[in-house]
Specification:
With 87 residues, the protein is an all-alpha fold. The chain is built from four helices and no strands.
Length: 87
């Protein structure tokens, strides 16, 4: 997959999740969160006002810390296709 194609597929997957209206399981949301942050090279601390949510988000980022931004994009796309689109 070319770099341009990967970015396009990633943006489409992000838009799909943004417009998804069914509740998503917390573990899936945390994986998507970590992949999204890494793909966008946003390594800032989680910004929730709830310490417990920040802890879960930080843990998700720690678990995915050795993933490249390209692999994070691919992981995000795969999760959307497998878990949400069921393709």
């Amino acid at each position: 997959m070319t770099d341009e194609n990967l970015h396009k597929k990633f943006e489409e997957a992000v838009a799909y999740v943004s417009n998804y209206d069914e509740p998503l399981p917390a573990d899936l949301l945390l994986k998507l969160y970590a992949y999204f942050k890494i793909a966008n090279k946003n390594y800032n601390n989680p910004g929730s006002k709830t310490p417990l949510i920040n802890a879960f988000k930080a843990n998700a980022l720690i678990q995915a810390q050795n993933i490249s931004d390209e692999d994070a994009m691919k992981g995000y796309i795969d999760l959307v296709n497998i878990e949400l689109k069921k393709t």
